[in-house]
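Appendix B, record 7
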Amino acid sequence: MTRPELLVLAGLHTSGVDAVIARIRVLDPTVAVLHHDLRDVGSGVVHRRLRAGDTDVSTELELVHGCLSCTVREDLLRVLAGPARRVVLHLDPALEPEHVCWSLLHVADGGTIADAPDLLGVVTCIDSGNWLADATGDDGLAERGMSELPDDERTVAQVAVGQAEFADLLVHTGTADAWTLARTEAVLARLAPAAPRLRLADLDERVFLTGAVRPARRGRPDDVHAPLLRGHPPLSRDCGVQLLLFSARRPFHPERLHKAMDVLLDGVVRTRGRVWLATRPEAVLWLESAGGGLQLGYAGEWLAAADATAWEKAPPERTALASLAWDPQFGDRAQDVVAITYDADHAEIAAALNAALLTDAELAAGEEGWRAFPDPFAWWDTAAGAPACSAPAELIASSAHGEKEES
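Structure tokens (predicted):
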């Protein structure tokens, strides 16, 4: 029996996404399109719509034990078990495809939804006239009326950037003046360099990602230790857009890093990278910013702080890279951060981050001395483990609208 094909479709602006769906249904009249509208999710209700052939059925679903991911996953499994050979999962504008795909690939009971369908990957719709403003702004989802999820402090920028960054194909669905389009293209070429970009008018069978020749994610999230420059992005400057690379082999002083983090919010589209704090020398922290929102989360442990079992369980790519860059004093621990800027002073960012590193005198105090440094970051209780439905990197600190908040 042929496995059904699953395509994930994302985008902030509903008119553009609807236009892509209309095109998909013309290209393949047998496709099933499943959508979960989250406008009442705060009340425990998801509005579900399934279009397949001539049928168009809308119903309401109650959250499965209070979990949105489980609700979407279980409903999708039912549709995949049906007659459709190709299913499009149309995401609510507030959802980021990486988190959804992670949920689809990691089921709490040890199974995986990918055992059933052929996960083709992610298509993201880009409203050319508004996407860049969304991706560099600081509006919260709640301010835009886009999220009813409790305690959802994400910004529109975090969603816009996350949707584009994780795409296997980007579709321009809006119109823009020449400068805005050129600058948007410059950002996308560095944010998702492996994803082809098409205009809606040119959309054809390539929307099903069956003929992709460039490296593609196919809905698979990167490991936190994967190369940060995925897909060979341009390193030159274009329309003011440029990549910044920051690397260092000594730890950050937590208090000085906390004060320096705002430098990654002004004139910066995206920041991603691995961070090492002196007060927790065994922890790999993942730093991620978009527009006016920034997060720092726990993402595992360095091999330098682990036993032989961790080496055996680590992917061969990670152990190979760790061995090649191994430092006699610090092992694989390092700072590695990449930022996409559009109106920022790279020298100022580098100076702020360098000033947050331990000085020679602080370094000489050793790990026991480092643990006594003032630390404004809250910590996730890693010993207790993460919730079964959570993503791998657990939030320990966030910054939105330029003001830091610990969680």
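Remarks on this record: The longest strand covers residues 118-126. The longest helix spans residues 14-27.
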